[in-house]
Amino acid sequence: MQRISVEEARSFGVETKFDVMENGERRFRLNCSVDGSSYCRTVAAERGAWQNSHYHKLVSEFYVVQSGWIVYAERKEAELHMCLLREGESVTFKPLIHHNIFLSSNSVIHTIKYGPPAENDWFPSSELDKVTKHLDPYDLFVLS
After folding, report:
1. Which residue of 1, 73, 77, 127 has the fewest C-beta atoms within 10 A of its own C-beta?
2. pLDDT at 46
């Protein structure tokens, strides 16, 4: 096996990006600008928190729970749907579906974005934030 250098990866449109988000999550991203796909490993903070509600116009997102649990909220037209996912479970959000994720403390998830290439295909959903950000998943689901 031969290792690929960072420079060679960039020549194929592949970049890495590592961030600590406002809610304390650590995100480790692998982005491919050529086809618009990306992978992100998210490690939640010590205290569980909601992400920011959003939607995509062109790409789909596939979330997998590796450890801990998440609650996702999605809005299709005017209807709100919420669901608890535990280790090994997954969900896909298609384009134009407004969604938000609550990660339990120290949980780990994987997110894969796929679809046609699209620059800046992330749009905030303040309407869904108003509905979700104040909700406590511990009040909504039986969690152990």
Report:
1. 1
2. 95
Question: Residues with Cβ < 8 Å from 104, sequence gap 6 or more?
Answer: 44, 48, 68, 69, 70, 137, 143
Q: Dump strand ranges (E) for the chain.
A: 14-20, 26-32, 38-43, 49-50, 54-55, 60-67, 69-76, 79-86, 90-93, 98-103, 108-114, 123-124
Residue corresponding to tokens 């020549």: 11
Domain count, the chain: 1
Per-residue pLDDT averaged across 125-133, rounded? 95
pLDDT band for position 23 (cuts 50, 70, 90): very high
Q: What average pLDDT is seen over the chain?
A: 94
Does residue 1 fall inside a structural domain? no
Whether residue 84 contacts residue 141, with contact meaning beta carbons closer than 8 Å, is answered with: yes
Q: Return the SS3 of 24.
A: coil
Q: Is 64 inside any structural domain?
A: yes
Q: Rounded to whole angstroms, how far apart are CA atoms 44 and 59?
A: 24
Q: Kindly report, residue by residue over 71-88, the tens digit of the pLDDT.
A: 999 998 889 999 999 999
**87: domain CATH number?**
2.60.120.10
Q: Which amino acid, one-letter code, is at 45?
A: A
Q: What percent of the residues of the chain are helix, what percent strand, and what percent coil, each to the nearest 5?
A: 10, 45, 40
